[in-house]
Amino acid sequence: MAEAAIKRGRAVTVDQCYHEEAQGSIISRILDDMVLLYHRPSGQTHMVISPVPEILAALKDSAPASAQILYERLSRLYDLGPAGTALAEIEGHLVNMTALGLIRTAA
Fold first, then answer.
1. What is the predicted pLDDT for the residue at 107?
2. Quick one: 73 exposed, middle or buried, by C-beta within 10 A (0-12, 13-18, 19+)?
């Protein structure tokens, strides 16, 4: 059985997979040390910092991925620190990014 957790009032599972929003629905622009993400479907612009752009890049043009898979992809490029701490952070970001409509859960 999948391990469940509560993140910001939502039940999520450790093995929940996510994928990028439809291609072309997010326009990104770098502004100093932040990234502006314009979400075309909602008309909203989000100001984000690391690791959100890196997570989006790790999902781009890839198969849906869980927090564990994203940790493995990102740890090849960055020093993420202890796996347990990094996984919890990635999971939290995935939940928030889903709530904003920047990514979607996979069926």
1. 77
2. middle
13-60 pLDDT, tens digit each: 568 999 998 888 999 999 999 999 999 999 999 999 999 999 999 998
Q: Which two tokens stand for residue 97?
A: 């990014």
Widest Cα–Cα separation across the chain: 44
Give the separation between CA 14 and CA 30, rounded to whole angstroms.
31
HEC profile for 20-72?
A: ECCCCCEEEEEECCEEEEEECCCCEEEEECCCHHHHHHHHCCCCCECHHHHHH
